[in-house]
Design goal:
Blueprint (H helix, E strand, L loop, with lengths): L6 H5 L7 H15 L5 H19 L4 H6 L7 H7 L1 H23 L6 H21 L1
Helix pairs in contact: 2-3, 2-7, 3-6, 6-7
């Protein structure tokens, strides 16, 4: 994906780009690039791509994620082939998550550990909500 702003601007709160908007934009990109596939296939591809981006943005290893997938499936070679294209998405998602954590740490009495827990809960809620739509 391409944006008119940088991950650094998101981290510094110079730009308001939410996790919800990121997920919607990423799903739209999948729909445009995979328009020959049906909705269910597009959704599955988006889910795995997003999970990979989240895994790497939160400190996981790209190759470790791929190794955890069914090696006979479409996904390991597909994700490996678009690795470079996913890098900006991973950086932007990391910036969004970092901003969400920083917003909580800036609140009085909120520790980093508590901020991480809160953002994890928020992330799970957003993912669940957008899965229902």
């Amino acid at each position: 994906m391409e944006w008119d702003f940088t991950p650094e601007q998101v981290v510094k709160a110079e730009v308001d780009y939410s996790l919800e908007q990121f997920r919607l934009d990423m799903f739209e990109e999948v729909r445009l690039n995979m328009n020959q596939m049906d909705d269910a296939q597009q959704r599955k591809i988006f889910d795995v791509m997003y999970d990979l981006c989240y895994w790497v943005a939160t400190g996981g290893d790209f190759n470790e994620f791929l190794a955890g997938l069914d090696q006979e499936s479409f996904f390991p070679p597909f994700l490996g082939s678009i690795r470079e294209m996913l890098t900006p998405n991973i950086k932007m998602l990391g910036a969004i998550l970092q901003r969400l954590i920083m917003e909580r740490v800036d609140e009085p009495g909120i520790s980093l550990a508590e901020a991480l827990k809160q953002v994890d809960v928020l992330h799970r809620q957003i993912v669940a909500k957008l899965l229902l739509n």
